[in-house]
Amino acid sequence: xxxxxxxxxxxxxxxxxxxxxxxxxxxxxxxxxxxxxxxxxxxxxxxxxxxxxxxxx
Length: 57
Ligand SMILES: [Zn+2]
Known about the structure:
By secondary structure, the protein is an all-beta fold. Helices cover 0% and strands 44% of the residues. It has a 3-stranded antiparallel β-sheet, with no helix packed on it. The two termini are 21 Å apart. The structure holds zinc ion.
């Protein structure tokens, strides 16, 4: 099986432990609305080490 998933890495401090990098919705950026009408937000990554927020790789 080929692993094509690209690991996220903090641009600021270099943290790449997935347990430290938390996905969270960026509520300023709605991608689309689900059929139930709920907004689906773009996800971004927040570094649990330094607090930097950056886009998913
Ligand atoms: Zn960091």
